[in-house]
Amino acid sequence: MLFFVSKIGKSRHSQSDDAQAVAFAVADGVGGWAESRVDPADFSHGICGAMAKAALSWDESAEKLRPRQLLQDGYDQVVADPSVKAGGSTASVGVALPDGRVELANLGDSGSVLLRLAAVHHYSVPQTHGFNTPYQLSIIPPRMRAQASVFGGSYLEDYPRDASVTNVQMQHGDVLMLATDGVFDNLNNQDILKIVSSRMLLTGAWTVSPESGINVSDNLCDLTRPGGLASAFPPPSGQSSTKESTKDPGSDLESTITLQSLLAASIAGEAKIASLDYRRDGPFAKEAQRYYPGDYYRGGKVDDICVLVLVAVDESIGK
């Protein structure tokens, strides 16, 4: 599993609106390839690196870059890479523009959830061929393909064109999460909403009033910057709130924590706890019981967990 976040193309050095456009993705190597002595991480690492490189080298307007095209570019580069002999990966890819428009392409059981003011506004639907058989980009060596044909079988093969594409318009205070199936197998959308809402309210990023309900804080922009959570969690009484002048603030963990990193770590942590809980049936367990009622699968599902969180900020608010 891997993720990347990248500015897009030449615009990263300019002062235009395109300078704020970003491409991002999570990818999850399919673990079943380990049975063929293939490291599942090779493919996901390769495709994320290739997509990041493709985004950085984009030489047109960021508005013309599509996540499905980015996925295709990454896939083509991995297929052409002689060091990646075989493997497969699911992926969730996005391109966000400064005006809040976001286009998402999801292939397989990696996916996305958009939360707005303590409600689930959008979520992706996993693509599967059957139970625990997600769509996946893959490289199948000729030898393995020939062996399968001898026994009258074949490999399932999916391509970037098969990814489902969704367009959303993010608003100030929205939270967009991309994650691998290690999250979705153990937490449902309401679990994720509960985690995010509690952290957003705790930090003051969202506020509650009897008259208007949930609102977005005016200082949201500060909370999303490195060290921005220091204002939300002041030091205990008796301790100085300022750093010693001889201390490098960059060496402190507090100086790097952002609201979005707190949300991502919280979701990943709760997913890890749920994956190890044999008493609480997660989404994967419930799906397994539906497909195979005779096999009494219980509890969570241990799997790779990767979470990427974006928080939409209108920088003109609160100034």
Automatic annotation (TrEMBL):
Coiled coil: none annotated. Its cofactor is Mg(2+); Mn(2+). Residues 227-253 are annotated as: Disordered. PROSITE patterns: PPM_2. SUPFAM superfamilies: PP2C-like. Gene3D superfamilies: PPM-type phosphatase domain. It comes from the Eukaryota. Its EC number is 3.1.3.16. The keyword 4Fe-4S does not apply. Residues 1-312 form the PPM-type phosphatase domain. It holds the Pfam family PP2C_2. It catalyses: O-phospho-L-seryl-[protein] + H2O = L-seryl-[protein] + phosphate; O-phospho-L-threonyl-[protein] + H2O = L-threonyl-[protein] + phosphate. InterPro entries: PPM-type-like_dom_sf, PPM-type_phosphatase-like_dom, PPTC7. GO terms for molecular function: metal ion binding; protein serine/threonine phosphatase activity. Signal peptide: none annotated. Keywords: Hydrolase, Magnesium, Manganese, Metal-binding, Protein phosphatase. Belongs to the PP2C family. PANTHER family: PROTEIN PHOSPHATASE 2C, PROTEIN PHOSPHATASE PTC7 HOMOLOG. This is Protein phosphatase.
